[in-house]
Amino acid sequence: MTTLAVPFFPGADVAQARPRFMPTEGTPREHEHALVVAAQRGETEAFADLVRTHQRRAYAVARAIVLTHEDAEDAVQEGFLHAYRALHRFLPDQAFGAWLHRIVANAALDITRRRKVRDAEVLADTIASPFRDPGESDELRRRLRHALTTLGERQRAVIILHDIEGFKHSEIGRMLGIPEGTARSDLHHARARLRLELGPVRSEL
Amino acid sequence: MNIVHDDDRDFPDDEVRSTLRVEYAAPADGSYWAFLERRIMARISAESAREWWTWFPAWSRAGLAAAALALLVAGVTAWQTRKAQERVVWQELLETPNEMPVIESAGNDRANRREATLRYLMSQ
Fold first, then answer.
1. Residue A10 is nearest to which of B15, B19, B55, comparing CB atoms?
2. Residue ranges of chain A assigned to CATH 1.10.1740.10
């Protein structure tokens, strides 16, 4: 079956529609390389494959930076849209995931900047994502949410990306546009802050 | 000097970590991801269908419009200037007095005199 590919670049010739992208044999890296090249040629099905492959990880990156599930979702969508627009500038030999994560992180940071007007009380409420069990009453979780609001947004992002999502300091640095040493230092201070905030709770529980 | 650890030595504890994991876990429902993918691809399809000028940011569209307007005004001004110059040239040409310049040719007069002298001598 063949489907018409949506023209990728403005002014692209609709008459030059190509057949749907067919997956290639080989390693995942080679497969991804083929997907990127096909997407750059304007095959939207190939780009859809890239979205399918990377959206969960992209969500994790966005979720570490923004405060709510909805904002993370918006950041993921914005990130993929930006990536699509900039795809012709991407070199297919590079790691697509790392490139995408940086774009998604930037989109998430933009959303965070726009949300800065919220006060601390609203932050404490919204950090509990309505996507998951809003009715739970676990004390540690409640205090943890509060403790997270006491961190700077970059510190919070770094601790989630490193300790929960398993990214390396260098990867976090590239994503957030900060030196690796700063990411390392932010992680240390974020952990110390959490320990301080949660210390009394832990002794109470 | 502030020593920054690379490992997990200064992380509060495993319970805090697992609580954080739950807090930040991505949705597990496969249908959610299929829905998100469709939304992303719908936006991308809409993006592909956009007119060419919408690819420029709003400020650059305003700049392009201003530049096009400036170019139009400059073109019209240049055309009008050229027309006015042509009109002036024609006006000058038409208003020039109808006297033709008199060219005195000393050479011709001398030749005529020489010819008349020669005729006189031949008639003697």
1. B55
2. 7-117
Non-local (6+) Cβ contacts of B41 within 8 A are A44, A47, A48, A51
Answer for the pair A155, A112: CB distance below 8 angstroms, yes or no.
no
CA–CA distance, A46 with A204 (Å, rounded to integer)? 53
pTM, full prediction: 0.63
DSSP code of A177? T
Report the distance separating Cα A16 and Cα A26, nearest Å: 28
Do B33 and A177 contact (CB within 8 A), yes or no? no
Smallest CA-to-CA distance from A183 within A148, A142, A155 is with A155
The total of other beta-carbon atoms located within 10 Å of residue A80's CB is 27
CATH 1.10.10.10 domain locations along chain A: 119-205
Other Cβ atoms closer than 10 A to A101: 24
Q: Which residue out of A191, A197, A201, A202 would a mutagenesis test of the B interface target, given it has the greatest number of B Cβ atoms within 10 Å?
A: A191
Q: Which fold has domain A119-205?
A: Arc Repressor Mutant, subunit A (1.10.10)
What would the two tokens of residue B8 be? Answer: 């997990």
Q: Per-residue pLDDT tens for A13-47?
A: 333 333 345 555 678 888 889 999 999 988 889 99
On the question of pLDDT at B23 being above 90, the answer is no
Residues of A in Cβ contact (< 8 Å) with B44: 6, 44, 47, 80-81, 84
**Rg of the Cα trace of chain A?**
20
How would residue B104 be classed by pLDDT, with cut points 50, 70 and 90?
A: low
**What's the CA gap between A22 and B4, in Å, rounded?**
48
The reply to whether A141 touches chain B by the CB within 8 Å rule is yes
Q: What ipTM describes this predicted complex?
A: 0.71
Q: Give, in words, the CATH class of A7-117.
A: mainly alpha
* pLDDT confidence of residue A25: 63
Search chain A and give the residue with CA nearest B12: A195
